[in-house]
Structures are given as C-alpha cells and as structure tokens.
Amino acid sequence: MAEPATNDAFVEFERVQKSYDGETLVVKDLNLSLPKGEFLTMLGPSGSGKTTCLMMLAGFETATHGEIRLDGREINNIPPHKRGIGMVFQNYALFPHMTIAENLSFPLEVRKMGKSDREAKVKRALDMVEMGAFGGRRPAQLSGGQQQRIALARALVFEPELVLMDEPLGALDKQLREKMQFEITNLAHSLGITTVYVTHDQTEALTMSDRVAVFDDGRIQQIAPPDQLYEEPDNSFVAQFIGENNTLMGTVKEIKGDQALVELDDGEVIDCKPVNVSAVGERTRVSIRPERVEFNKDRLQKGAHTLKAEVLEFIYMGDIFRTRLRVAGNDEFIVKTRNAPDQVRLKPGEQIEVGWLPQDCRALDA
Amino acid sequence: MSDAADTGPVLAADGTPLKRSLARALRVQKTRALLLIAPLLVFVLISFIMPIASMLFRSVENDIVRNTLPETVPLLAEWDATSGELPGEEVYAALARDMIVAVNAKEHTKLATRLNYEQTGIASMFRKSGRQIKKWDPVADAPFKDKFIELHEGWGELETWKTIQTHSSTYTSGYFLNAIDMQKTPEGIQAQPENKQILVKLFIRTLIMSLIIMGACILLGYPVAWILANLPANKANLLMILVLLPFWTSLLVRTSAWKVMLQQQGVINDVLVWIGLVDDANRLIMINNQFGTIVAMTHILLPFMILPMYSVMQTINPSYVRAAKSLGATNWTAFWRVYFPQSVPGIGAGSILVFILAIGYYITPEIVGGTKGVFISNRIAYHISSSLNWGLAAALGTILLAAVLILYWAYDKIVGIDNVKLG
Asked: Which of A87, A91, A111 sits opposite B326 (nearest CB)?
C-alpha cells in the first residue's frame, strides 16, 4: 500500500519499521502520507502497532528504520519538545498539582510567552471548549468529560498544526463519548488542524475521520474514507474488523471481469465481486453486510442467485430487526432490516430465500 | 420527601428513631472489632505506653528526699534559709530519727546519690555519716546538732541544708533545668557553670547533624529512587535488593565496616595516599568526629529515604512527563515543573522518617562519633547506664520527644501531612 509521496503531504511515514527487542517488528513497513487539515484515524486491535506509530510521530519512540517527515522536514532525530505537535493522552495527563489555567498556560510559559498574551490565549482556549469558568479548579475536581475537554484545550492552546490523540475517549461513557466525538471533529475541522487519532473503536473511527487507516500485524491493511472502508473492504481482516459481517466459505469457479461465480461449500453457486481473488479454484471468503441481504424477491435483480435459508431467531432491537438465519451451513448469518411499517417480521422456523446485489458480495482472501 | 423527614427525627419501621436503631445494629460489630484488637491494645499499653508514661513522669518525680526523710522535710520547710543561721536542734533530731531508719534500710545511699547531682560531695558525707549514725539511739543520744557537725563538718554548713530544702518537694523542675544547662539553686534558677554546659550544645548538634544526614539522604536517594521507579520490573527488583541489602546486615557490622573504611590507616586513606592525593604524614581524619557520624548514618538511613520516594514515584504516570515534553518543555523543565512537584510527598515522607530516626540514633554515633560526633541519645544512654541519673535521662528524652512532635507539627503546618505518602 505504498502511497506516492506527494508534495502537499504534511505528515509522511516512509518505509518505517520499529522493533523493541531486536527480534520482532512491531511496525513492519509503514508508508503513510496525509495532507494538511486531514483527520486521519489509526484503527486496529491492540498490539497492531497503531499506538507505536503515534509515539514515533510524537517523538517518544524512535523509528528503527525509515523516515518520518513533518511538513517536508525529517523529524526522526528531533526531540519531542521541539516538534511542536499537540498531543492528547489516553488518561488526559493533566498535571494534578496545577490548576486548569496553569495547565493550559504551561506550553505557553515554556515558549516564553508574555503574561498578558498567555492569559488571553488560555481564556480563548477555555472558551473554545466551553470551560471558561473552570480555570481555577484542579484536574481532580473535574469530571472525566471535563478533563477530556481541558486536555484537548491544552493540546491546542499553543496552536500546533498537528494534533495527536491516543484513544482520548476511552474512559468516557457512551453518551459522553458520542458528544465528544462530534465536538472533537468540529473543532479540528473549524481550526483546520491536521489530526492523527488512534482508537480501537471502529464506530469512533467511522464517524470522526476523513480517512481511516486499519492496522493489523504492524501493517496498514487498508486506508480509505469511512464509507469506502465499510462498503468496499480490501481484505478479510478489514471486512471482519469493521462493522458486522456475514461470511461464507467457497471456491472460485469463474471470473469474468467484475463478476465472479463462487461455489459455496454446500454446492450452491452465487455471484460475487472479486476483490482479493484472481484464479479459478482459489479458496475464498465471501463477505456480505447484514443490511445488504434481501429476502424480498421483488427487490432483487432479475436472475440473481438466491440461497435457501431457515429463520433461527428474530430479535427486536427497536430501530432495526435482527434476524439470525442458517444459510449454506452457516448458523450465524445475520440479516438486519429497518423497522418500517410494511416490514415483515420473520418467525423462527420459516423457510425463505435470500439474495443480494452482486457488488455487495465481495470475494476476499480466505 | 417523606413527612417524617419534615417534622422530626427519621424513624425506623418500628417507630424508634433511626439513629438509635442504627447504633444498636452496629453495636455487635463494634464490640467484635474491639475484641479483635484487644490483645494488641493491651500489649501496646503494657509494653509501650506505660513505660513511656513512666519515663516522662520520672523526669519530674522527686519523692526520694521526702520519703527518706519524712520527719525532717516538714520541719526544714519552716526554716528560713536566708536567716544565715543553721536549723534548730529539732531539725537535727528529726534528721537523726530519719537517718537511723534509712541507714538500717540502706536507703540513705540512694538519697545521697540524688542530692549529689545538685551539690557535689554530699554523697560521701552521707556515706561517712551513715556508718556512725547506725550506732545511735534516737532518744538516748540527744541532742544531735553538735554530733552531726562533729561527724562531718558539712552538716554545719548552710549550703547543705539549703540543698536539702530546695530539693525536698515531691515534684521538681530540676531535671529539666539540668537538661538545658540550668540548675535549681537555693537562690533560684541559674545557669550551670560553663564547664558543665554541654547538653544544649549537644541538642543543637543533634538537630543540625540530623538535618545534614537528611539532606545527604535526599541528594543520594532521589536519583536511586527515580531509577528504581523507571526501570523495567526485573531490573528494578535486582536494584531493590541492593537497596535493601544493608537491612539484612547487622547494624553493628555495617558501622564497624565504616570504621575500617574511614580510619587513618583505613581503606580510603590508603587509596588516597596511594593515588598521591594525600600525603602519608597528613592522613585524613574521617572517624571519631562528625564527618564519620554523618557518613555512616547517611549510609544506614538511606533505605528509609529511598523506599517512600520510590513508592511515590511509582505512582507518577510516565505520561505526565511525556505530556510536558509534547507541550514544548525541555527534559529539565518537564522534570522540574511536572515530575518533581509530584514526587515531593515522597521526599516529605522520607525526610520525616530519616530525621526522626536520626535524631534518636545511638549505636552509630557511639561507635564512629568519638567525642565530637556523638548525639544527645548517647548522653541519655550515659545517664541511664553509667551515672544512673535517670531523672535527667528522662528529662532529656522528654525534650527530644517534644522536639520531634514540634517539628512534626511545624511540618504539618508548612507542607501539610496530607502531602506525605508512604505508598
């Protein structure tokens, strides 16, 4: 996935490798470039190398090999305090012995800024996160969400062009997290800051980012805008990791341009879009999103292949219905349907036929 | 809001006030807890609180004169010491009766020792007189005044009687006055003669040297604690063993080792001479003085500084320093503005521990301190085991205890005891 180094790249990783023990590589071959103003999320399971990448960018870890560039300048050997990168930490890292205002004033003080300038900037930063009245408090006197905002304000108060965030919302409850997701993206876009955001929460990644880089095993598996990532995963890992996914195992029977025929393990044949397969006879994992499965024949293309299915379970979830089917020997085949007035509510034991558009059914690596 | 809450005390379901119900419910629990700690409580009371209380009491207790001379003391109280005349015959007669009893019970030597603290020479006078008084008869041998003066001319001196009168009260401030180089004389409170003024100097020396030792421990211990807290666990464990190693060696052995190291023919001097830094004729004197005490005690007390520092530093999340650096702070600024303030509670705890231990230290100054490097505790030990002036030892101990408590209080006022963390 080597991207060509473009001139407008603001942050660039080129062939970056990282090893802690000299035996295994945590980051294997990282190539990444993002333009100014982009909100990029590094998403991946723990141990996938995403946080290491962030720490290398911040300067707390050194790259074992390769080059990291910021605004065209190589920063491998520049210490963290000279990089001018704002950072929001997982536990916020607000200095407990300082008041909120002192916390925010700290980056300005070390930059030898005058007192009146400092005060004005601190006030503006606090107002920006709607915490203007809290300057005199100590971090321990604030709630998790408030601390989060202060951490954000502190990372932005010295007006860095690049802000790194390391799972900043991990400690918040669901409602607050959703609110903060919205606030952070708004703030980042309105200030035009380039943001690199690390999370293992895919919803967060999808809702906040301009682009998402999915990490696994020290490599970027796919880097794409959220909709593309979700709808057109490049490989099985991305398909499994992002969102819910139905998989059926089979063998490629025929490939014709943008269409492929796959014979499933129980002998049925379906139409697919070949993504990761190239040869007839290759094993493949076919992936279909639950909301793209259709059992109303009127809505299916003429001549589309359909599969027999037995309803195992019907779960009412309010906004959607979640129906568990047995399809081609897979007991965990899920269909999601919208709770519309004319929507059919299937009953366990019913025999139906399911189908989908060929482009929604992606033949990936096994 | 329920109606009950508005109109009066909250009631339990059966109508009794909720507070009383709660107290009843908790009583069993409380009793059980008390019974569980009772053995320890009794042990501490008997083995710790009571001895300390009796020690404190001993510093003001002075009933020996009154108990040994029960008849003499009330009569002597009426005597006007400023009149310039010796007490009357009735006082001498009472003294004779008291002494006969005391000599037979062999109590008079204790009294002699007590009074000798106040007036040197009184002890021998009592002992010499005692041998004769034993043969007297309280009725047949009267009058006694001349007989006493004949026995020992001291009995005819005003000073003797003044001393007995001054120190015949049941409680005395005399020991405390002695402890701060003052004395209680018949003419009132006066400073001790200059050649006997050593205790205040010793107190001040103890305080200053304890502070120096504490400071040395902070300077030496802080980097070690920092490394301990920042190393990976397996390496930190090894280093921790090295820190704790001195704990497993006898205090006496360690102190004696310093003696070997520091003496004029010792390892350090030998090395310095061999390198050529020091002339063989002018070997450094590093033992039997304050330097020796400071070096040896810093070494011995260092773990008490490192351990609390380490446990506080362990709780400081490394992301604070990272955050400071990402905000633009240099390594030094990040340390000084962010890390150090958070480690202060550890320094406070270690300092209190080391200072309080140092101020009462005895063995090490005794072995390596010579005469110039000894502490007040060595003087206390001397008075307890050699001079047997327990009252003075108790007074010195009480002052030491008070000094520690005052310093602790001052620390609480200035730094706040909440800021002290032992772990």
From this structure: A87
pLDDT digits (tens, 9 = 90+) for B404-421: 888 888 888 877 777 666
Domain count, chain B: 3
A84 touches B at CB < 8 Å: yes
Query: How much is the pLDDT for A303?
Result: 67
Give the separation between CA A310 and CA A348, rounded to whole angstroms: 8
CB nearest to B325's CB, from A81, A95, A96: A81
CATH number of domain containing B371: 1.10.3720.10
Indicate if B28 and B74 belong to the same structural domain: no
> B319 phi and psi, to 5 degrees?
-70, -20
Any domain includes B185 = no
Q: Cβ of B322 and A80 within 8 Å?
A: yes
Contacts of A105 (CB under 8 A, 6+ apart): A118, A119, A122
**Cβ contact, residue pair B322, A154, below 8 Å:** no
Rounded-to-integer distance, Cα A358 and Cα A62, Å: 46
**Helix, strand and coil percent figures for chain A, each rounded to 5:** 30, 35, 40
Q: Is residue B346 part of a domain?
A: yes
Find the chain B residues whose C-beta atoms sit closer than 8 A to any C-beta of A. Answer: 317, 319-320, 322-331, 333-334, 337-338, 341-342
In which domain, by residue range, is B270 found? Answer: 199-419
Asked if B269 and B347 sit in the same domain, the reply is: yes
Owner of token pair 């001393």:
B163
B24 in a structural domain:
yes
B34 inside domain: yes
User: Which residues contact residue A217 at a Cβ distance below 8 angstroms, ignoring those fewer than 6 apart?
Assistant: A28, A48, A49
**Element at B236 (helix H, strand E):** helix B233-248
Pair B214, B358 in one domain? yes
A-chain residue closest to B333, CA distance = A110
Residue of chain B whose alpha carbon sits nearest to that of A110: B329
Nearest by CB to residue A158, choosing from B328, B334, B337, is B328
φ, ψ of residue A286 to 5 degrees: the values are -90, 135
State the first-to-last Cα distance of chain B, in angstroms, to the nearest integer: 44
Whether residue B338 contacts residue B320, with contact meaning beta carbons closer than 8 Å, is answered with yes
Give one word for B347, left, alpha or beta, with left for phi > 0 and alpha for psi -120 to 50.
alpha
Residues of chain B neighbouring A20 (CB-CB closer than 8 A): none
Query: Which chain A residue has its CA at the smallest distance from B320's CA?
Result: A93
pLDDT digits (tens, 9 = 90+) for B230-254: 888 888 888 888 888 877 888 888 8
Contacts of B343 (CB under 8 A, 6+ apart): B222, B226, B309, B312, B313, B316
From chain A, pick out residues whose CB is under 8 angstroms from the CB of B341.
97
- Confidence bin at A137 (pLDDT 50/70/90): very high
Percent of chain B with pLDDT over 70: 96
Cβ–Cβ gap A59/B329 under 8 Å:
no
Q: Are residues B274 and B139 in the same domain?
A: no
Are the beta carbons of B323 and A95 separated by less than 8 Å?
yes
**Tokens standing for A83?**
């990089």
Q: Are residues B212 and B159 in the same domain?
A: no
Contact (Cβ atoms closer than 8 angstroms) between residue B173 and residue B117: no
In a shared domain, residues B133 and B218:
no
Q: Do B359 and B400 touch, CB atoms closer than 8 A?
A: yes
Query: How near does any CA of chain A get to the CA of B287, in Å?
Result: 44
Yes or no, beta carbons of A106 and B329 under 8 Å apart: yes
Query: Residues B290, B333: one domain?
Result: yes
Does residue B13 sit in the same domain as residue B94?
A: no
Chain A residues close to B338, C-beta within 8 Å? 95
Phi, psi for residue B399 in degrees, rounded to 5? -65, -40
pTM more than 0.80: no
Q: Which of B234, B327, B338 to mutate to test the interface with A (most CBs of A within 10 A)?
A: B327
Which of B58, B77, B99 is the last residue before a domain boundary? B58
